[in-house]
Give the backbone structure.
Amino acid sequence: MAERVPGWFWEVLEAARPRVAALEAWLGGQPREVLEEFAWAYATAAEELADFAEGVGVDGEVWSEDSTEDLCLWVVGQGYGLWRAVLEGERALEEAARVYLGGEAAWDGEVADPAHRGYQSPDAIVHGVHRSRFGEELRERPEDY
């Protein structure tokens, strides 16, 4: 569970927030393995919040798998505090969804490298950095290697 997501991952997010460009710069200076571990940690943290396929019920509507995944990725991007509160049931995922729908964000969405446009969120920037540095798609799972 929570111990599967390394502490350094949360430290990096916290240090970079609210600037996607700061996270972009940090990732740009890391070896391939760290980018892979960052992506794995991000995906793992999101998956721990909900079964995407089951959706999340918000105001009587069950969200799609993709929308639920987007919500969980957003929660992770808000930082350890919100993520942990949702994970432990101190804050309902449905409550976080209402904040998400309100457009509240902890990140500015700016990137330094024009090649990274389209990857302007904390969960996506690692994919843009990996692609521009290594010329290939980033695989998020250790079993993908």
In short: The beta strands are 57-58, 61-62. The chain has a mean pLDDT of 93.
